From TrEMBL:
Highest rank taxon of the organism: Eukaryota
Any Pfam family: EF_EFCAB10_C
Residue ranges of domain EFCAB10 C-terminal EF-hand in the record: 13-70
Identification of the protein by name: EF-hand calcium binding domain 10
Chain coiled-coil ranges: none
Bilayer-spanning residue ranges: none
Source organism: Neovison vison
Length: 77
């Protein structure tokens, strides 16, 4: 059985070799995954259209949009 540190190193090497984190960063920064992310959180109506300003969706922009939509939902209560 391998030690915990060895398994972590093996996992890190695998992620780096296959550029998994790079792929995840790319996918989570595009509008393609912005809509499903909001939908999963229950913050997007089925028929709602998101405006694409042509810029990459940053974590900060996503977080800001989530906070804005959450506040709107909770204000109804």
């Amino acid at each position: 059985m391998q030690a915990g540190g060895s398994r972590e190193l093996e996992a890190r090497n695998y992620l780096e070799k296959h550029r998994i984190m790079e792929l995840v960063n790319y996918l989570t920064s595009t509008l393609l995954f912005f809509r499903p992310g909001l939908k999963t959180l229950g913050l997007l109506d089925e028929d709602e259209v998101l405006q694409d300003d042509g810029h990459v969706i940053t974590l900060e922009k996503f977080r800001s949009e989530v906070n804005k939509r959450t506040e709107k939902i909770w204000s109804a209560f």
